[in-house]
Amino acid sequence: MKKDTLITYTGRDPEDNYGVVNPPVYHASTITFPSLDEYENRGDNEFDRPQYGRTGTPTQFAFEEAISALHGGFKTVSYPSGLAAIIGAATTFLQQGDHLLMADTVYGPSRIRLANTVLKRAGVKTTFFDPGIGEKISDFILPETKVIFMESPGSLTFEVMDVPAITSVARDKGIITMIDNTWSSPYFCQPIKLGVDVVIEACTKYVVGHSDVMMGSVTLNSSEHYQLVKNMANNYGYHAAPDDCYMALRGLRTISVRLQRHQENAYKVATWLVSRSEIARVMYPALPEDPGHEIWKRDHKGASGLFGVVFTEGNWKAAAALIDGLKHFGLGASWGGFESLVLPAHPEKIRTVNEWPHKTPCLRFHIGLEDPIDLIADLDAGLTRYALACS
Ligand SMILES: Cc1ncc(COP(=O)(O)O)c(C=O)c1O
Known about the structure:
Elements: H1 3-9, H2 36-40, H3 58-71, E1 75-79, H4 82-93, E2 99-103, H5 108-121, E3 125-129, E4 145-151, H6 163-173, E5 176-180, H7 185-188, E6 198-201, E7 216-220, H8 223-236, H9 242-252, H10 255-274, E8 279-283, H11 293-299, E9 306-311, H12 316-324, E10 330-331, E11 341-345, H13 347-350, E12 362-366, H14 372-390
Parallel strand pairs: 2-3, 2-4, 4-5, 5-6, 10-11
Antiparallel strand pairs: 1-7, 6-7, 8-9, 9-12, 11-12
Bound molecules: pyridoxal-5'-phosphate.
């Protein structure tokens, strides 16, 4: 089956459900067994069937089956948020005395909450590396390095990593590789094909697609890794609510058309911004002049609607004049929904490997499903306000 066909079939079984097209929402804590014998002999692998609400309902399994199918993975574990998926996956493979290698451009809380808080308290040391490192990652590997954590393109500044170069070094040394694949989603990138062991999605973004549900997923490339991650999720008591799993599966059905349109609109807005003298840089790997363009083209099937810009001159007062007057861009965290958003980005505050070279404001835009003509007109007026505030 081609990918777009697979998306419409996976994770549902109408014949098992009175012909109803979508899987039902099973609300469950208690799950009963017909006999003592079946209860006592429910098997070593307690995750193969519903046992208790916390370890998974049929609605959760349907969602996980769909994400696994799209990624070509062994199985998926779902979580109540993307950050929960990040923490759950990383703490499965890291313990006291271990060393983590993490890209300098990861999503802020992966660095601040996972590496600098949760893992630090647990006695795990982290070294951050330049996302452009490629096979030179080998220079940073210590005997106690257990995990390499990537995100490509990176958050806020959208550097594209050479993932296969890193996974081939890691595999030779028995190091687990993880990636936050949220920007591309399972629709535009399948990192397991690039050699990654553990693929994390903040499903809150493009999988759900409607800015109304928090969900995360971790897809594993093997039975062994799945058992470890699922067990750890159970240790934490992580549970993905059945209504949220249903909504995420429902969102997934239309991810193909949504992402194609996000890409089309974002490309139009990004190329228009490139032409503007107020903008020094547009950080979007789909642009031919982007430094990560060639690797992005090799490893990804498309570009989502999220990119960054850096201004040629000006300050945050001018940025406020631009942002506060926008009609079609909401100001708020998250992205991946149907609507356009803008957010101030401050890479200079969190990066530690390479100093951020710009002193002018940097903004992140999520381009939604509105008509790009309206978005461009809105930004055009915004850039006029920006220039006026600078003069
Ligand atoms: C790249 C990336 N990964 C992970 C997350 C975390 O997802 P959630 O907000 O569902 O916890 C986000 C949220 O913004 C994100 O942008």
